[in-house]
Amino acid sequence: MSGARAIRRRPAQGPSALLPSPEHSFLAPLRDVEIIGAAIGCGARDPRCEYGPDVLRDWGLAARLAGLGCNAHWGSQLYPHYGAHRTEPEAIVPEFATRLMLAVAASRLRGKFPLVVGGDHSCGIGTWSGVHRVLWRQGPLGLVWIDAHMDSHTPETTPSGALHGMPMAALLGYGDPRLVHLGGIQVKLAPRQVCLVGVRSFERGEAALLARLGVRVFYADEVRRRGMREVLAEAVAIAQAGTVGFGVSIDLDAIDPEDAPAVGSPVKAGIRGTDLIDALGMLRDNPRLLAMEIAEYNPFLDASRTTADLLLRIAGAVVAPSAARLAA
Q: From the candidates 50, 120, 121, 302, which is the catalytic residue?
C-alpha cells in the first residue's frame, strides 16, 4: 500500500443536476446500498486510515454484504487531490469534502442508500452535507453521531489542529468557513436534532460549544448504565423529531478497543461491539434512515481483519435482511 496513488477525478456536476424531482420520494425504504469510499487520512494525526476504503473494497465488503442478502455494490472511490498541498490539510479537506458531498447527493438522487466508508472522520462534513443538499427544501436532517470523541472543535479550541476533530462543529455552523460553507449553506444541522453517543474523550472548548447549543450527549457511562439499545432508541427519537429523516455516523473508536483495535484514536471503556450491532438492528426497517457512515478504519492495525469483520457486521445490522446472526 506504499507509493504514489493515481488521482481519480469525477466529472464535474452542476448544481441543477442535484435538485430533487417533485415525484421523488425520500421517505421510501432505501436499502439498495451504494458504498462510497472516502479515502481521506490527512485530517487525522495518524493518516493511515486513508487506506481503509481500498482494503475493504479489495476484501470484498460489497460481496460480503450481498452474501447477507443485501443489494450492495461499490460505487465511487474518492481520493484526496494532494498536489502541492500535501502538508496542508486545511486546503485538502474542503476540496475533498466537496466532491464527497456531490457523490453522496448523486447517490441519494439515484434512489440509493449511501454507505460511506472512511477514512478519517473529517469525511463526515462531506457525507452529511451531501444528504442535506438533497433534502433541505423538504425539511431538516437529523443525525446520530456514535463516537468516543465530540469532534466539535473549531480552529480556536483545538489542541491538535486535526480536522477530524471538527466535523460536528462544521455541520452545526462553526469553525473554518471553508468547511462550514460547504455547498453554499452554512448550517446543515440543528442542535436539537443531533445527538452524540458513546463520548468519553473530549476537551473543554468543544464540550462548551455543544452545551451552549443544547446538543444531547450520551456519554459512555450513561450508555453502560442504561444499555446501548435504550440509548440508541432515545437518540433516534431525537434525530427524527421534526425532521425529514436522519443519518447515522459511526466512528469505530466508539467501540471498545478489545473489539475494534484497528482505529486511529482508540479510547478504553467503549461500547461493546455486540451491543452496538444488536442495537443497530432496530434501524433495519426504518424508512427515515437516509444514509450511514463508518469512519476511522486503520487497516495497518488489522492483520487478522477482526475490525473489518466487525465493520461488516455493523453495516449488515442496518442494511442486510438476514442479519439476525451478526451479533453472535
A: 121
